[in-house]
Amino acid sequence: MIPIDIIQKTAETLMDKAAIEIPQDYLDGLQAAADVEDGDLSSFVLQAMLENYEAAKEDRRAMCGDTGTPRWYVKMGNETQIEGGPIALEAALRRATANATNGVPLRPNRVHPLWRTDHNNNVGIGAPEIEYGYEPGGEWIDLITVHKGGLFGTDYRMLFPSDGIEGIKRFYLDSLVAFGKRGLACQPAIIGIGLGGCKDTCMVLGKRAACLRTVGSENSDPKIAALEREFKEIGNSIGMGAMGFVGKSMVVDCNIEVGYCHTGGMQMSVHAFCLSSRRAVARVFADGRVEYRTDPDWFTDYQRRETVEWDAPAMEAAE
């Protein structure tokens, strides 16, 4: 059984890491973009951000004044037991969020949608969001915090099967141009695309693709992986760079995730993570061990399964 005090302590450490320490995969991707960028203002922004990330880590201060809207992704092995159960788990994550808001500190961004009231701790009705995933076997829990910007950088459209790949490209490029020209996202960013599902699951897929995949990772479907590479290239060919200035470094990486949908439609969502890609991960074991990392490792074969039953050895043999 995993002790609840270790979960809360680990969650508080993750909130600090996510706000201050840029993940290495994103840092490498941003440096690669800076190396090829030739737009004057875009180059200036990229260099300033790289210096800012280093200063944030040295000073132990949040890397961006807008620290986003903290959210949690929780994954656990099938045999996992948590002291106090799921209610205690969610309470620990809410306490960790409130404590980190005052401790890191984070900007208290969460307010009531109508009355605009807040508790100055990023906790309220439905906040922070907590999403769950499960894996066969094992007694462990992965805690993943993502501090994603909560205003813009997201769009959705109901496409149809006849729109095909070209229709997907059009909406993708329309979204990027709108993000850049209207200041709706902070580029360059990891772009996540959700295809299929219902409207709500399509949005979830796209956001997870943006926030829970590392730079350089590829979808396990080779055809989708090829689309990801193509979309990164065309996203960087529209003449926009950092923060919408003239350049060629708008997309650090493009990740696509799919879900089965209604036969008559093809839902699509587009999400820009952020110029400050804030995420941190830890696995907590039943014996109290904690292993920190930056790769969420969310999209496993199990998460992308298509069959009714899950038989890992049989599927591996078939491959």
TrEMBL record:
<dbReference type="InterPro" id="IPR051208">
    <property type="entry name" value="Class-I_Fumarase/Tartrate_DH"/>
</dbReference>
<dbReference type="GO" id="GO:0004333">
    <property type="term" value="F:fumarate hydratase activity"/>
</dbReference>
<dbReference type="GO" id="GO:0051539">
    <property type="term" value="F:4 iron, 4 sulfur cluster binding"/>
</dbReference>
<dbReference type="Pfam" id="PF05681">
    <property type="entry name" value="Fumerase"/>
</dbReference>
<keyword id="KW-0408">Iron</keyword>
<keyword id="KW-0004">4Fe-4S</keyword>
<keyword id="KW-0456">Lyase</keyword>
<dbReference type="InterPro" id="IPR004646">
    <property type="entry name" value="Fe-S_hydro-lyase_TtdA-typ_cat"/>
</dbReference>
<keyword id="KW-0411">Iron-sulfur</keyword>
<keyword id="KW-0479">Metal-binding</keyword>
<protein>
    <submittedName>
        <fullName>Fumarate hydratase class I, aerobic</fullName>
        <ecNumber>4.2.1.2</ecNumber>
    </submittedName>
</protein>
<comment type="similarity">
    <text>Belongs to the class-I fumarase family.</text>
</comment>
<feature type="domain" description="Fe-S hydro-lyase tartrate dehydratase alpha-type catalytic">
    <location>
        <begin position="9"/>
        <end position="282"/>
    </location>
</feature>
<dbReference type="GO" id="GO:0046872">
    <property type="term" value="F:metal ion binding"/>
</dbReference>
